[in-house]
Amino acid sequence: MPESAKTPRYRRILLKLSGEALMGGGKYGIHPPTLLRIASEVKEISNAGVQTAIVIGGGNIFRGVAGSTEGMDRSSADYMGMLATVINAMALQDALEKKDIYTRVLSAIKMEQICEPYIRRRAVRHLEKGRVVIFAAGTGNPFFTTDTAASLRAMEIGAEVILKATQVDGVYNADPKKDPKARRYRTLSYMDVLQGNLHVMDSTAISLCMDNKLPIVVFNLSTQGNIRRVVLESEEVGTMVGALETRWA
Questions:
Q1: Separation of alpha carbons 138 and 146, rounded Å
Q2: pLDDT in tens, 113-146
Q3: What is the CATH architecture of 12-248?
Q4: Mapping DSSP to helix (H, G, I), strand (E, B) and coil, where does residue 188 land?
Q5: Would you kindly state where each structural domain of the chain is located, as residue ranges?
Q6: Which of 108, 248, 234 shows the shortest CA–CA distance to 161?
Q7: Are strands 12-17 and 116-117 parallel, antiparallel or unpaired?
Q8: What is the pTM of this model?
Q9: Can you give the pLDDT at residue 2?
């Protein structure tokens, strides 16, 4: 690491990306320039010595909950959503390797011809060797979201924080796109998230984080450089969720 580089705020992180984050301005699918931009930002923190794991959703391809509301069996729809996350993980792996970042995809559903099966010790070893690890296929079980998978994997690998990438610059008390008077929280307690139904992550994921005192930083991924600001520059970006007093920005 160059001498001029700043000491990272975190040693090991888990970045939670939604499938929609890969769409760019489109309505579905993967937008290659957006994929490469995300890869560039991940490369920046990886090169600074931050051990980086990623959980990615599949909503840009298929969303299990939406499928079940259209009459599909929920388990079948969720498994289809898990397969969509594998497609996104492979796409992100390709983009990272084009940036010369060694990357491994570990899937909760075995498909050894295209990625490794998820084994906790193997994932930690990859991280220790400086590889970016992408966790695919959620938890491998229906009825659990990729938010829950992110919380579970973060605790299993000993991550110090979950970075929850969204399309708004933090958590608000109302939808900022609809309510001009909406206010952003600077910090939030886990209980206020649960009691206020603030949709930071689903309640199972928040409860897991609360039980294990794992902080969550909610930030805007579409603002270029935000991953670096959170991890390397220790800037107060977005909203910090944890065992904190709730404060307004």
A1: 5
A2: 999 999 999 999 999 999 999 999 999 999 999 9
A3: 3-Layer(aba) Sandwich (3.40)
A4: strand
A5: 12-248
A6: 234
A7: unpaired
A8: 0.94
A9: 46
